[in-house]
Amino acid sequence: MKSTFRATLVAFPLALSACIPSNVVAADDRAVTSTTADLAWTDPVPPKLTGLYESVSIRGDAAAAMQKAYYWFAADGTFTGAALVLGGGDSANTPQFQTLGGTYRIAQDQLWLGEDSEPATLRAAHGHVRLTSAEGDLVLRRVGD
Amino acid sequence: MANGTTLARPHVARVMSKTFLSWFGLLALVGLCGAAVAGLTLVKDRIRVVVQADNAADAAGQQTALLKDDLQQVQRDVRALADALGTGLRQLADEQIANADTRQSELTRTVAEATRAQREALAAINTEQQRVARAVSDLHATLEQTRERGAVAAASTPTQVTAKAPPPAAPAGGAPPSTTPVDPAPTPESTPPPRKRSAFAFRLPSQGFAFDLAQRFELLPSLSRVGFDVKSTLHDFTGVTSKLSGYLRLNLAAPGTDCNGEIRVDAASLDTGLLGRNDAMRDHLACPQHPEIVFTLTSMVASQVDRDKQAVTATVHGRMTIHGQTRDMAMPVQLSVDDSKRVHARGEVTLKLSDYGVPVPSQLGMIKMQDEVKVWVALQARALGVEKTR
Prior knowledge:
The complex is a heterodimer.
Chain A: H1 2-18, E1 51-59, E2 66-73, E3 78-85, E4 96-107, E5 110-113, E6 120-125, E7 128-133, E8 136-144
Antiparallel strand pairs in A: 1-2, 1-8, 2-3, 3-4, 4-5, 5-6, 6-7, 7-8
Chain B: H1 2-155, H2 158-163, E1 179-180, E2 214-219, E3 225-232, E4 237-241, E5 244-251, E6 260-266, H3 275-285, E7 292-306, E8 311-322, E9 325-337, E10 342-352, E11 362-363, E12 367-388
Antiparallel strand pairs in B: 2-5, 2-12, 3-4, 3-12, 5-6, 6-7, 7-8, 8-9, 9-10, 10-12, 11-12
């Protein structure tokens, strides 16, 4: 009787522990990955961009300076934006926000932001828009109206 | 008497003949002498002439011979001189050729040095130009910020709100849109023409990321993870956190030169997936007393630097502090740069908890964790600024 009790006493925590599965993270899954990689970018480009967008991915040369960007587009063709830019302020190591506003225009899948900027190729996918130019690739997610 | 006569006749004849012969001999001798004198007289001039003619010929011959000899000597000298001159010219030509090679190599070296110096000067000028461009860009940004602040201040008054109302809707495919704020523009004489904005409308600085510059990389906590993998009697598990901070300062092209850095991890934020296990871990790590796990990078030894792929394989050396105990540690890492100009650092190393005074967790003496723990990092960092030129 005593031996059965001892065996039960030993086996119970072992069995309890065995119910807990291993949860080792695989080496390939350790890094944080981008969530925009699987977007198809096949949606038709909207004639107007309305609402608030935030950047979820910045790639290319612009990424060296631009850390984050927000844009608000109005139906009347105006927009305002803010970008956290490194190297544009007093200290090279301290990013600062740049803000601006103006009018935007979409024509032939090209987006002009202001009169003195180069156009960027515009694509869309599932609530995201993607601006591509020689300076980089900016993916914006629509986060509000 | 007859005998006497007979005897006298031969004697007279002999005497007469003897006398005759004496006279005849004398006359002959005189004649011969006269003839000799006459002949000598006659021949004297001829002899003189002949003698004189023979002496002149000899003298002329001697002079001719001397002249010939002199001429031959001169010819020999000329030939010797010509030979010497030819030899000298050949030597001179050889020396010129040799000197030409030397001068060619010296000239090539001089040109190469001048070219290098020119390139360095151009690089210095470019660097200075970039610095000036950055300064101008900073000045522009400051100016625009000042304008925008002025515009915001102006927009706060009702009259100026009307003045700075948003522009009408953009024309469909018409003229390029305008950009606000539109404060009174300074006179063209006072400001340079504005630089074209980027496609994203912002005025981005020209300074970008460079693989071969010493830069300070700030860790991005939201894109970084550190953790540990452990094995125990029944199941293995991972503890992970993104609650970290720190920086790396290095030149990716030459990571072994003058690099340093620091990574601070909030020990209590490590999550193993089970609350009870997390509590036990915090107890073992004595988190209230030692809230941070710190790794201080002191040096880096690169085994491979691929400039084209912008990737580095290296071993980082530093000091790891866990549970208040500090030990030397070396971790193999792979560094790479992604399209967003972020540096990725991945690596792992196995260490012993007992080396850091961390008691090895055990449940009832039967479910026991191994002393060896695999610590790993998957970091992303952004370059904040160039610390020095390449």
